[in-house]
């Protein structure tokens, strides 16, 4: 059974405190594409999508990096 990750809720909590620099740092070391997509969905569900352009750009950039076939992080 797959274990659910609460990474996206933690990063969302950091964003809600206003610390975008720390959130971007966490986005850069995101564990997986699934977690980044969960963060994007959580931002949309909370009505926060588009509020921080640099955060949206970091999510897009890191989704592209993690989706590349040769670039991945080992577990």
Protein model, in words:
The protein is mainly α. The chain has helices spanning 7-16, 20-28, 33-45, 53-67. The two termini are 17 Å apart.
Portion in helices = 55-70%
| Secondary structure: number of strands | 0
SS summary, helix count? 4
Poorly predicted parts? none
| Topology order in helix (H) and strand (E) letters | HHHH
Main sheet record: none
Distance between the termini: 17 Å
* Mean residue pLDDT: 85
Please name the defining characteristics of this protein:
mainly alpha
Summary of the model, kept short:
The chain has helices at 7-16, 20-28, 33-45, 53-67. With 75 residues, the protein is mainly α.
How is the topology of this model organized?
Layout: H1 7-16, H2 20-28, H3 33-45, H4 53-67
Helix pairs in contact: 1-2, 1-3, 2-4, 3-4
